[in-house]
Amino acid sequence: MYDEEQLLSNPLKRKKYQGFWYILLLLTLLLYATCFVAFVPVSLPSFGRWLWFSRGIDFSFMVVGDWGREGHHHQKKVANAMAVVARQTNPRFIISTGDNFYDYGVSSARDKQWNSSFESIYDSWLKNIPWYAVLGNHDHLGNLTAQVVYSNRSERWNMPRPFFSLPVTSRFGEEYLFVFLDTTPFIKDSYGEAARRNGRQNWRLQLSWLEKLLNSSTSRRIFIVGHHNLYSSSIAGERGREELRILLKPILDKYSSRIVAYISGHEHSLQHLQPYGMDGMDHFISGGGSKTDPLKDPPKESRQYWYDCCKVLPFGLSEKDKPRALFRASKHGFFVFKLYRSELIAEVYSQKAKLLYSYNKKILP
Ligand SMILES: *[C@@H]1O[C@H](CO)[C@@H](O)[C@H](O)[C@H]1NC(C)=O
Ligand SMILES: *[C@@H]1O[C@H](CO)[C@@H](O)[C@H](O)[C@H]1NC(C)=O
Ligand SMILES: *[C@@H]1O[C@H](CO)[C@@H](O)[C@H](O)[C@H]1NC(C)=O
Ligand SMILES: *[C@@H]1O[C@H](CO)[C@@H](O)[C@H](O)[C@H]1NC(C)=O
């Protein structure tokens, strides 16, 4: 403080002081320029991307669910917000958590909805980003083969089979595994019936495929994607699916030390859940791609009942080692996941591209 005052009052010293900063600035710029030439391909579209790189980010991806309504019910607004955020965050791909086309899926790979609910909606900055999609219960009311076949007609739609996996090697050599499930055939309602009939899908086969896949994978950073959620923090919707807690959870538990998160849609809201407390696997619900559903808390006195029967997780409690919901919003929006060397950041954005929630978690190197 004393020195600074002196410097300011002494014009000669002040000049020297400024000179020091000019030299420092020059050196910094020189250093930046060297790094830029040495490490960054000239074709990089934005400087922001490079700044990210220097912070140690591996890659990012977006997740949107429950969307295909020909732009209506806020679908186009969410898509525009995705484009705004994509421009800033440069996602490597976009994941769809299903219910891609309402109400009855698509009828063929030439269905008009491919244009009116997908290609013409997710445009501008989203145009060149690949999508990896799972099927939702509404998709199961239409032609499933068409959603697979369209992968060959589209530059960006990817669904090689109704359930599949995607290994991703990051620029730091980290191995990720994304597993895309078809959850509807597990579900014991009319949609599940249709799924088992139309798709002739053997859900037992899918489970043994999953078990084999996780067993043989060496990745320590696995993301599981399915349409239906296992848990919820609301009693208003379907409250998570018991069938998945019975059939899927034992497999997820077995490999939980290597699974970073289970990501779903189905409920038309945005939620972050920790069914086993802060040290367990995170569950995210990204179902705000078009319509939203209200959220509802169980009354205080029946919380335990709702947890016991339906695994409804309490929201607004901060007991870190207990089942809990950290975030939920009945809002139109989507998630962005950013992966760093040893950290995951999950962000929720609204249809106005406003950041609603941000969560970070250490992940094993
Ligand atoms: C489903 O879509 C595929 C691809 O467009 C088409 O070949 C097939 O005929 C369709 N099935 C039915 C039942 O319409
Ligand atoms: C695609 O959909 C948009 C929006 O619904 C419409 O304006 C456009 O004419 C459609 N293009 C084709 C080729 O059908
Ligand atoms: C996509 O095209 C390739 C090459 O033509 C073919 O082998 C593959 O079976 C096609 N996939 C689907 C789902 O139609
Ligand atoms: C993976 O499968 C092998 C062979 O079936 C078995 O011996 C091993 O215990 C399995 N590993 C895990 C982690 O389940």
TrEMBL record:
Keywords: Hydrolase, Membrane, Signal, Transmembrane, Transmembrane helix. Pfam families: Metallophos. It comes from the Eukaryota. Residues 60-269 form the Calcineurin-like phosphoesterase domain. The chain crosses the membrane at residues 20-44. InterPro entries: Calcineurin-like_PHP, Metallo-depent_PP-like, Metallophosphoesterase_PAP. One of its GO terms (molecular function) is hydrolase activity. This is Calcineurin-like phosphoesterase domain-containing protein. It comes from Galdieria yellowstonensis.
